[in-house]
Amino acid sequence: MEYEAVIGLEVHAQLKTKTKIFCGCPARFGDEPNTNVCPVCLGMPGALPVLNRRVVEYALKLALATNCRIARISRFARKHYFYPDLPKNFQISQYELPLAEQGWLEVETSAGTRRIGIRRIHMEEDAGKLIHDESQPLSYVDYNRTGVPLLEIVSEPDIRTPEEAAAYLKALRDIVVYLDICDGNMEEGSFRCDANISLRPAGSRELGVKTEVKNMNSFRNVQKALEFEIRRQKALLEQGKAVVQETRLWDAARGITVGMRTKEEAHDYRYFPDPNLLPVVIDDSWIEEVKKSIPELPTPKKKRFMEQYGLPAYDADILVSDRDLADYFEATVRLYGKPKTVSNWILSELLRELNRDNRPVSECPVTPENLAELLTLIDDQTISGKIAKSVFEEMYATGERASTIVEKRGLKQVTDEGLLESVVSAVLDEHPAEVEKYLKGAEKVIGFFVGQVMRKTQGKANPQIVNQLLREHLEKRRK
Length: 479
Prior knowledge:
Layout: E1 3-14, H1 53-65, E2 69-70, E3 73-74, E4 76-80, E5 90-94, E6 100-109, E7 112-125, E8 129-133, E9 138-142, E10 149-155, H2 162-178, E11 191-201, E12 211-216, H3 219-238, E13 246-251, E14 256-262, E15 272-273, E16 280-281, H4 284-292, H5 298-309, H6 313-319, H7 323-335, H8 339-357, H9 368-379, H10 385-398, H11 402-409, H12 417-430, H13 432-439, H14 445-456, H15 463-478
Parallel strand pairs: 12-13
Antiparallel strand pairs: 1-10, 1-11, 2-6, 3-16, 4-5, 4-15, 6-7, 7-10, 8-9, 11-12, 13-14
Organism: Thermodesulforhabdus norvegica
Subunit structure: Heterotrimer of A, B and C subunits.
Keywords: ATP-binding, Ligase, Nucleotide-binding, Protein biosynthesis, Transferase
């Protein structure tokens, strides 16, 4: 029997606010354990939460960017469960009245464009973090993360393949990073994903029994975990066994999912409205104000880059994947009007250096002005393309301008035809056997001669002039 996967993703985006969602404690990552805490986020008796307005603003941004319907009135609820990293024994979240619903995102896969529905976006607080001691049966808890604001984005079960799931997750991450509301760091857990997956016979409209998969900290792991879970569930069904509704962890080292606990239902959490927080009321003027702050998003930007600059989809996709990179590209194009050339240099030379150093574009020592100057030096034949690459490496290492490096190192191209003629003649005299091969029709030998001239001129000879002079001198020798 053929089976079809039904996949829905629950994504948690940790917001880049300075303080937590219901108190004034810093929402910083990496501080000493249990230093960013207070009676409110520790759930002390009598401590009352106060909503951080910036959290609502960030939630509105994401709701608008994902085509959601925004609720004019939404409400916070208490979600009860008992775990050491949850000091109040409940989490403040939203349930029956979330901030936003009925949105969608379009994603690109090898099978084409798919629209994935977004069921809801709601605000909530994060829990603390448990650290398990491998040397003894002890666990420690760090409450610094308790109360850090989250947006939970719940997709519709519209996803049919692991590839679509990874594409949806990447598109969503690109949006939150563009909006500057989340840093999108999956390794640190500020952008994390749980996947619900079930199988059903192809063509059936009934949903199968689902499992939830957690602990996936990269796009690749999401895809691989879902691929494994499809194989596992399919094998169970083919053997006539039941799929158990449970939460499973992805073990990246072994490439398998492992059972963790039986899956809870909503009624298990005993939701009810939080009596200490007023409903959130959104008016039209606030929505309009937020709309004005939303930048051009990755999908329309990619389309514009392809239309305005004539870039292929591959180039545009990489350039718009990082807002700072897209801005760097456009700043360079404004100074040097050949978009494809700029794209080639960014995608090869610039990204190679940045990736090697794990450095963001915002800290790149080569400014758009300096890159534009380097490309202009190639165009006006001051330096060759090959020398330009070594100049770029020095620009990246030192932050100096291209013209300064060229002047300091004496790298200007040799374009003096008289000087180059003497070098060409010397090369041909030194290699009579290769000259004979050329005269007998071995055209490719010309490359050998060019290399020899470049070696003698330390790579400074203008290659176009060298090619022209070589052919002229070789033809004279034919006569």
